[in-house]
Amino acid sequence: MTSSTPRSTRGPLSLWSDDRGSALIEFAIILPVLVLLLLGMSGYTLSIHGAMQLQAAAAAGAAFGAIPGNEANLSGMQAVAANAAAGISGFTAAASTLWACSAGGPAVASTSTCSSGVTPYKFVIVKTSGSAPFALNYPGISSKRTLYGSATFQVPWSQ
Length: 159
Known about the structure:
The protein is of the alpha+beta class. The radius of gyration is 30 Å and the shape is elongated. It has helices at about 15, 20-65, 75-85, and strands spanning about 90-100, 120-135, 145-155. Helices cover about 35% and strands about 25% of the residues. The N and C termini lie far apart (about 90 Å). It contains three helices and three strands.
């Protein structure tokens, strides 16, 4: 049963035990934290998306260069990577070739013989970079971050 006594006549200590409106106050306290968390997640998501685009662009350029006959067309590899990375600000691509006895191994001369007795393999490498913006500009922190991508493909039939 509820009391019909007006609120102002219940006594001064009854205000401390009254919890009406506490959910609104708690929400007002936690809302800025939730907004900052959401903005941080969106900035991180934009960075991940940009990095994935740069990696895909590097892979597209290297795949073009891995086609037999295209391994010397460095500008073609860079153009394919640039087309795949449309929309990335500050985009750059660099393409190169190297001979190695294994993927990730040190570069060797194309006329040398590897320790396994086979001739070295030819690889094409495309490295990309670009900028991704932050969701918010914070004082003292750069408004953009540089992201990178890289792909190395073996050129078939190059032994």
